[in-house]
Amino acid sequence: MTRGRLLIFIGVLFIVSAILHVMPLWIVVLAPIWSTPVKVAGIVILCVGALAMPILMIFGHGQKRDLPALIGDVWLGAVWQFFVWSVICEFVGFIAWAFGADHGARERYVALACVVIVAGLLAGGAITALGRVGIRHVTIRLDRLPQEFDGRTIAHITDTHLSLALGERWMTRIVQQVNSLSPDIVCHTGDLADGDVARRTDAVSALGEIRAPLGRFYITGNHEYLSDAAYWVAHMRKLGWTVLQNAHAMVRIGEANLAMVGINDLTAPGNDAASDRPDIDKAVQGIPAGTRTVLLAHQPKQVRDAVHQELDLQLSGHTHGGQIWPFHYLVRAEQGALSGLSRPGPSTQLYISRGTGFWGPPFRIGAPPEIALITLRRA
């Protein structure tokens, strides 16, 4: 990034931070009739937060410093919810005023409602994000699936985003959950870890303990290209995982075959062997006609490649199911779908996981994490 673009980016970050803090400042602190010490404390907290949040995120994420990044992310999640709910509560308060509610009482009730709602959502969102990950059982029927694969299972994990908050203990717990399902195949569809590679290696290494008799398959997501994609590719291979980079691998049961296909993320820069641009034509080259196919692609919108090649099933992550409402609507608009099973093509199905971990703010509101256990069935 050039110096000019960097300055523009930093400037935009501070402007966005100011906007996010203005509404809570007005609705929660200034408009209600509070005592002077309460108002002064609220003004100081929000003004300091508006300046500190971008600095913490730039220093934390930009310099790969765990603690500043985590503090900045927590504040971002909190102030985003305060921004959203201050707008909603003010709208409801305006309706109450239109029906004759006392102005002073209305302002206080709006502020208190906003604080109570946000506090509850953040507490619940933190428990959901950091607690036990749920198992999502999904049955997918494929035309002409060989009898030998009928009833076989695929455990799908994605977006683990290993970090200071999601470390080795958390990853070990995920591995234990996956192994308890006794899947035939395990897939990880990218965004393995965030931050300093040296700090995440031990946590990622827990993935070496996952058991899957028919194979373990991994592809890169966009976040691998923010750290060291080549390192993670080499490390996952060292752990015994098959890394699919614009390539496929055949899973065989007797004479029956299932092709596991993987393509790189759309953000791959193409500057080294681990960072080739996504190439679906290269990935499927050599697959015998009539073979059923499962494509691993990090972003759901890469399904256009699957439809073009008439592949049977695509597994994706990336969306986190929106992670924190109301981001759901923005993510759906950008990716075309949010989570779950859909059929974007005549012969192509798409399953989008809500993700196993989280990125940024340690909250999940309206989008619980998941480990998907997919059972393949003959249509």
Radius of gyration: 23 Å
Low-confidence stretches: none
Give the helix proportion (percent range): 40-55%
Q: Which CATH top level class of the largest domain fits?
A: Alpha Beta
Task: Summarize the structure in words.
This protein is an alpha/beta fold. It folds into 2 domains: 3-129, no CATH class; 135-378, 4-Layer Sandwich (Purple Acid Phosphatase, chain A, domain 2). Helix content is 44%, strand content 17%. It has 10 helices and 12 strands. It has helices spanning 3-30, 36-62, 66-98, 103-130, 168-180, 197-205, 229-238, 280-284, 303-308, 327-335; strands at residues 134-142, 153-157, 185-188, 216-218, 242-243, 247-253, 256-262, 292-296, 313-316, 340-345, 348-352, 370-378. The strands form 2 sheets. A 6-stranded mixed β-sheet has the order 1-12-2-3-4-5, covered by helices on one side. A 6-stranded mixed β-sheet has the order 6-7-8-9-11-10. Helix 5 (168-180) links the parallel strand 2 and strand 3. Helix 1 packs across helix 3 (66-98) and helix 3 (66-98) packs antiparallel against helix 4 (103-130). 44% of the residues are buried. The mean pLDDT is 92.
List the helices and strands and how they pair.
Layout: H1 3-30, H2 36-62, H3 66-98, H4 103-130, E1 134-142, E2 153-157, H5 168-180, E3 185-188, H6 197-205, E4 216-218, H7 229-238, E5 242-243, E6 247-253, E7 256-262, H8 280-284, E8 292-296, H9 303-308, E9 313-316, H10 327-335, E10 340-345, E11 348-352, E12 370-378
GO biological process, one term: lipid A biosynthetic process
Transmembrane segments: 7-34, 40-62, 74-97, 109-135
GO cellular component, one term: membrane
